[in-house]
Amino acid sequence: MKINVKKELDKNQILLLKIPSADYSKDITDIVKQLDGSIGYVTLNKTFDSLKEEFKKKKINTDNILFIDAISKTIKNAPEMAEGSFFVSSPAALTELSLAIDRLLRHNFKYIIFDSLTNLMIYEKRAPVSKFISFITNKIRQTKTKAVFYALNIKEQDALIEEAGMFADKVEQIK
Amino acid sequence: MVKIILIVDDEADIRDSVKLILTKNGFKVETAVSGDDALKKLKKIKPDLVLMDIMMPGTPTKEVVKQIKAKVAYLSVVRVSEAEKEELLKAKNVVDFIQKPFDIDELLKRVKKLTGAK
Amino acid sequence: MKNKSLILVVDEHGQNATYIANFLENKGYKTLEANSGKDGVKIAKEKKPNLIIADLSLYDIEVFEFAKALSEIKILFMGKNHISEAKIANIKNSIGIIPKPVDIEKILEILKEEKI
């Protein structure tokens, strides 16, 4: 892993990480391995089941992780919650997503991982996404929780990613 | 007989690239930009296979699939577990689950297999 | 304050429970106290408070058992124990954790957000 995310989060509260799609899977597990403490993992493109499977394969203990799965409900019937996860109706359900992130902040999670802004931008228009990012980064800043937002390198989203970067303390590109 | 494929994806890149390779290989290709658009098109055409993006604006794919008889292969940017994949394939007319990003030649192979084309 | 919401404070340290209860009474809330988890469950089932503020280090009952017994009622936990916040946050009726010694203003803020 080329970037020490833990170290970056020791120095910055909100990090925007640009991740190339090539090693995406490996990068996300490497990052989780680096972090010590509770993690609220918000996923917009990988189901809770698939992440559990992936993490198990990489021998990552998920006892300290609570998933917010905003994708499963769009492709199958999922309950409101399961052991290890809450489910949000869809990546476009921004109010629900906000409430879920609020739950993580209220429970003093050490880290929040938002995987990913790219997916948010697929399902929603630019204005609501900007508003959402501004709103939640504001809420995060009122707490001690550290947050890392992932963005995949996609040309059409360059402008929106730049904008999102303004709410972060630091923007890093993983090579 | 010429096999007909309907590609349903909100991304123009995907529709264009898949249409190009399938047409070059002897398939007749129709496109739709959403589930709702697909339902409209399916009133007029009878494809041998529908390639459908699992996540699109409008009526959710899982609802659309219930309303059609044609064979469907999901194209999915969403990563699912093995068990979930099996579950999705249980639906009567769902015949395959293709993870995005996919290799275009691999897609061609699968389409040929699923439609019994040579 | 017109608000007559009922809040149950559960803490084995009686002084702490009373401190919080008194403060809330001054702010117009009705309150009850319990000095054990099991008493808390009994009182809550009987009196049906709008919210429970409970210490995480209850000795006579497991946190999950406590929460499950009172699944209809929102619980704001305080303090800490060996259980990860990831597990506490996974409890449907848990609305958060506040550190001890409690910041009473923080409790009021949460009550406001929860419309209690």
Q: What's a concise summary of this model?
A:
The complex is a heterotrimer of chains A (175), B (118) and C (116). Chain A has helices at 5-11, 24-34, 48-57, 72-75, 94-106, 117-123, 126-141, 158-165; strands at 14-19, 39-43, 65-69, 81-82, 85-87, 111-115, 146-152, 170-173.
Strand content of chain A: 15-25%
Distance between the termini of chain A: 10 Å
User: CATH superfamily membership of chain B, which one?
Assistant: Response regulator
Let me know the number of strands of chain B. Answer: 5
Rounded to the nearest angstrom, the distance between the terminal CA atoms of chain B is: 11 Å
Assembly status: heterotrimer
Judging by the overall fold, what is the CATH architecture of chain A? 3-Layer(aba) Sandwich
Average predicted confidence as pLDDT of chain B: 92
CATH architecture of chain B: 3-Layer(aba) Sandwich
Architecture overview:
The complex is a heterotrimer of chains A (175), B (118) and C (116). By secondary structure, chain A is an alpha/beta fold. Chain A is 43% helix and 21% strand. In chain A, strands 4-5-3-2-6-7-1-8 form an 8-stranded mixed beta sheet, with helices on both faces. The termini of chain A are close together. In chain B, helix 3 links the parallel strand 3 (49-53) and strand 4 (72-76). Chain C has 116 residues and is an alpha/beta fold. Chain C has a 5-stranded parallel beta sheet. Chain A binds chain B through residues 21, 45-47, 49-50, 52-53, 71, 74-76, 122-123, and chain B through 54-55, 57, 60-62, 76-84, 87-88, 101.
Features:
heterotrimer; A: 175 residues; alpha/beta; Rossmann fold; 43% helix; B: 118 residues; 5-stranded parallel sheet; 5 helices
Q: What order do the helices and strands come in, and which of them pair?
A:
The complex is a heterotrimer of chains A (175), B (118) and C (116).
Chain A lengths: L4 H7 L2 E6 L4 H11 L4 E5 L4 H10 L7 E5 L2 H4 L5 E2 L2 E3 L6 H13 L4 E5 L1 H7 L2 H16 L4 E7 L5 H8 L4 E4 L2
Parallel strand pairs in A: 1-7, 1-8, 2-3, 2-6, 3-5, 6-7
Antiparallel strand pairs in A: 4-5
Helix pairs in contact in A: 5-7
Chain B lengths: L3 E5 L3 H13 L3 E5 L2 H7 L7 E5 L7 H6 L5 E5 L5 H7 L5 E6 L4 H12 L3
Parallel strand pairs in B: 1-2, 1-3, 3-4, 4-5
Helix pairs in contact in B: 1-5
Chain C lengths: L5 E5 L3 H13 L3 E5 L2 H11 L3 E5 L7 H7 L4 E5 L6 H5 L4 E5 L5 H10 L3
